[in-house]
Structures are given as C-alpha cells and as structure tokens.
Write a structure and sequence with these properties.
This protein is α/β, with parallel strands linked by helices. The protein is 33% helix and 23% strand. The protein contains eleven helices and twelve strands. Strand 7 (169-173), helix 6 (181-198) and strand 8 (201-206) form a beta-alpha-beta unit. The termini are far apart. Bound molecules: iron/sulfur cluster and magnesium ion. Keywords: ATP-binding, Nucleotide-binding, Transport.
Length: 327
C-alpha cells in the first residue's frame, strides 16, 4: 500500500498569553494510505481539528514533519504550493459559515476553478453543473444563494466546491456533526460513493464513534493533544487496548442487545484537564481507571503492539510493567 500522507512527531502549540502555551497537538505520528479513510475521533478540544488544519497548512507545525506524496510540506513554494493547494482540500463542520452568503452557489463551487485557472466561460458553467449533479443537486441551484438551502444541501455544496479542483486528499472536519441524524447517513454515503468513483483519500474527523466506524478503514483516537490508539476500525471496536478507547466505546450503543460483546459502561471520573498544563507522564492518567505509579512519571511511547495496531499506554510496554513491579 502506498502512503499518501506521513505525520511524524508533529506538535502544534499556541501562545495563550503571559508566557502560557497551549499544547494543542503533541507528538503525533501516523500515516494515511492512498484510497483509504482514516477516521480521527476524540472529544472536543482534543486537538483533532488542529492536526487537520496543520496538515493542510492553515497552521504551521511547531515541531515535526508532514510529508504529502513523499515530499515535506514545510517549504512548499510557487508551483509546488499551488499544486498542493489543489490536491488537498477541506470540508468543514459548518457548511453555512464556510460558504460566502453573497456569492451564488455556482460561483462558490467555481472558486477553485477560477483560482487554479481550470475552466472559463461555458466550460466553467458546464463543470459547475456536473459538480452539482455529482453531489445530488441540479443546474437550477447554481444561481441561488447559500441561505436558500438546507444544512444537508449546504454540505453537498461544500463537497462540490472541494471536488471542483479534482483533489486526491480530503480532510473532512466533522462534516456531519451539525446535520440532523436523518441527513448524516446521506452525506456519508455520498462521500463513500465519491471516494469509490474518484479514488479519494479521506481524513475524517469526528466525535461520533459509530459514524466513524461506518465510514473508516482505520480509526485513530485522540485525547488531550495525543494520539492514543490507532488500528483497523473493526479491530479497534472489537479489541480496544487503550483504557480511554475502552471508555469511549463503552458509551456507544451496540445495535444487537444480545451481542456478547456488549460492554459495561465505563464512566470516567473528572474532566479533561487543560492543554495548558497537561498532566505529567500519561496525559490520561488523572482519569484512567488502570493508572499505575509509572504513568505519572513517564510518557508512554507510541508502539505497534500488534500488526497495524498502535497504542501509547504503559500497560502494553513490558519495560514499563517490569519497572512497575519493581516498585
Ligand atoms: Fe492509563 Fe497508565 Fe495506560 Fe495512561 S499509561 S492509559 S494512565 S494505564
Ligand atoms: Mg473541532
């Protein structure tokens, strides 16, 4: 399998004034393979949007390296930067806020065509109409304004706008969180269909675990700026290793109540600590039902503990368990 994106030990810190630093994303590493959907889940404030925005260069990484199609994205310039800006697109959570209310839908969708000089005049109109049809809308919608559309339709417009420049990689930042449940599946199914037809790769950011499992080939779980677990989505749901993943999954209703895998609900104590002063050692330790002494003193390393199943937790590190026993 071909890697399309590599994220290597990336940190994104923001200044919070008075010398304080928000460690929004801290030491994250993962890869995305061409044609797959990698889901990223976690509670709000865990850094999942921040990593998405850092990957697409809306933010500059504080440390670490991001490679797209084998090339670092840090110093892209001129033609390479232009190509990157076309090949990687983003779909946002709030389709209304991200669509200019004064522009017609046709002009919104054609923005990328204009910027990248891909089509003019009649060709431009034709492309817009094709894009509208691709996302389940029609020509008549091109001359209307965003406020005339429902939330689901607006998200379709956002998708058409992203597709206009023929991207390879789409970062979808909670694309369905603002939509009615009945509309969510329609948008996700549209995204899956487009992926098959166009060979797209998705980074799908969400807090809803059930929808993420449905759309993703692999799923990564984030907590307080760290990636804590990453695995094939079925494996992650069947055999979660990290105590935080276990807790998150215990809250997801399982469709079949007779299923033996039905889990007991794990209620986590306390709130997510501030990313300004995160706990020492493992950031989850203040809430972890399985925390040990070593968890306060040493940051667990990101390890592949089974083929393609990564986790950062001392419970799965022999060295850590030995030290813990010796105490
Ligand atoms: Fe819990 Fe320790 Fe594992 Fe962190 S490293 S998740 S505190 S057991
Ligand atoms: Mg967010």
């Amino acid at each position: 399998v071909e890697k399309i994106l590599e994220v290597n030990q990336v940190k994104k810190h923001f200044s919070a004034g008075r010398g304080q630093v928000v460690q929004a994303v801290d030491n994250i590493s993962f890869e995305v393979y061409k044609g797959e959907t990698l889901g990223l889940v976690g509670e709000s404030g865990c850094g999942k949007s921040t990593i998405g925005r850092t990957i697409i260069r809306l933010y500059e990484a504080t440390e670490g390296e991001i490679r797209f199609k084998g090339k670092t994205t840090k110093d892209l310039k001129g033609r390479d930067l232009k190509r990157f800006n076309r090949e990687m697109q983003m779909i946002f959570q709030d389709p209304y806020a991200s669509l200019n209310p004064r522009m017609t839908v046709g002009d919104i969708i054609a923005e990328g065509l204009d910027i990248h000089d891909l089509a003019k005049g009649r060709e431009r109109r034709k492309t817009v109409v094709e894009l509208l049809r691709t996302v389940g809308l029609n020509e008549e919608h091109a001359d209307r304004f965003p406020h005339e559309f429902s939330g689901g339709q607006r998200q379709r417009i956002g998708i058409a706008r992203a597709l206009a420049v023929d991207p390879d990689f789409i970062i979808a930042d909670e694309p369905i969180s603002a939509l009615d449940v009945s509309i969510q599946a329609q948008v996700v199914n549209l995204m899956k269909k487009l992926q098959r037809e166009k060979g797209l790769t998705y980074l799908f950011i969400a807090h809803d675990l059930s929808m993420v499992k449905y759309i993703s080939d692999r799923v990564g779980v984030m907590y307080l700026g760290n990636l804590v677990e990453l695995a094939d989505s079925q494996e992650l749901y069947d055999t979660p290793l990290h105590p935080y993943t276990e807790a998150l999954l215990s809250a997801v209703p399982i469709p079949d109540p007779n299923n033996e895998k039905r889990r007991e609900r794990i209620i986590l104590k306390g709130d997510v600590p501030s990313p300004i002063n995160p706990p020492s050692g493992c950031r989850f330790r203040t809430r972890c039902p399985k925390a040990m002494d070593i968890c306060a003193n040493e940051v667990p390393t990101w390890q592949e503990v089974r083929p393609m199943h990564w986790v950062s937790c001392h419970l799965y590190q022999e060295e850590s368990l030995k030290k813990e026993e010796g105490q």
